[in-house]
Amino acid sequence: MAGSIMQKPGEILEQIQRIASDMQSKVGDAIRNSPAQEIEKNVRAMMNQGFQKMDLVTREEFELQSKVLSKTREKLEALEAKVAALEKS
């Protein structure tokens, strides 16, 4: 009778694998059905609305405006030098 209760190591491994697979499946289902994804989506939407109200610019737009400003400064400095030279004459 004691011999019939004992399982072979292979059978025990199969049972452990079935239990692990079942648990993995249940955890996956729980994550897919959890409100966490909905909460994340709502938080992202709220953050985007907040950023839009802050009148922010994109990195590309900032870089472009920085280049325009740099060129404008160069032109201004050149014009100031010309004006200074004309005033001395």
Q: What would the keywords be for this entry?
A:
mainly alpha; 4 helices; 89 residues
Return the domain count.
2
DSSP strand content: under 5%
Q: Indicate the radius of gyration in whole angstroms.
A: 35 Å
The SSE order reads HHHH
Give helix % range. Answer: over 70%
Tally of alpha and pi helices: 4
The largest pleated sheet is described as: none
Mean pLDDT: 83
- Weakly predicted, low-confidence segments: none
Structural class: mainly alpha
How many E-type strands? 0
Q: What shape does the CA trace take?
A: rod-shaped
SSE diagram, text form:
Layout: H1 2-5, H2 9-33, H3 36-53, H4 59-88
Question: How would you describe what is shown here?
Answer:
This protein has 89 residues and is mostly helical. The protein folds into two domains: 9-56; 57-89. Helix content is 87%, strand content 0%. It has four helices and no strands. The protein has helices spanning 2-5, 9-33, 36-53, 59-88. The model has no long low-confidence stretch (mean pLDDT 83).
Q: How would you summarize what this structure contains?
A:
The chain has helices spanning 2-5, 9-33, 36-53, 59-88.
